[in-house]
Write a structure and sequence with these properties.
There is one protein chain. This protein has 117 residues and is mostly helical. The protein is built from 3 helices and no strands. The longest helix has 66 residues. It is rod-shaped and about 100 Å long. It starts with a helix and ends in a 6-residue tail after the last helix.
Length: 117
Amino acid sequence: MEPKVTATEKLFEQVEQYAKTSLEIFELKLVDKSADVFSTLTSGIAFLVVVVLFCFILSMGLSYYIGQFFIYEYYGFFIVALFYLLVLILMYLNKFKWIKAPFRNLFISLFVKQEKE
């Protein structure tokens, strides 16, 4: 009867070790996915900052350039502002197709990314 207790204890030890290993693998995969998402977001934000600065400086130059063709230079700023208002309205009307769906798909693809082996 002694061997059955030893076999049962050994089985419980193996199950416990399997559970610990599975939990450790899950934690490592979670850390990997989180780091991947965080690094993607960080690089995306850095890229966005550079694009915003570029657009700002370009808008200032374009405003001054357009303003030279009118009596008052500030008309160029109004024209550029109206252009941005038009872009804003278009983005609002198509926000799901242009903004929500692509970002949702990006996050899903980052979290569900298959491991390359």
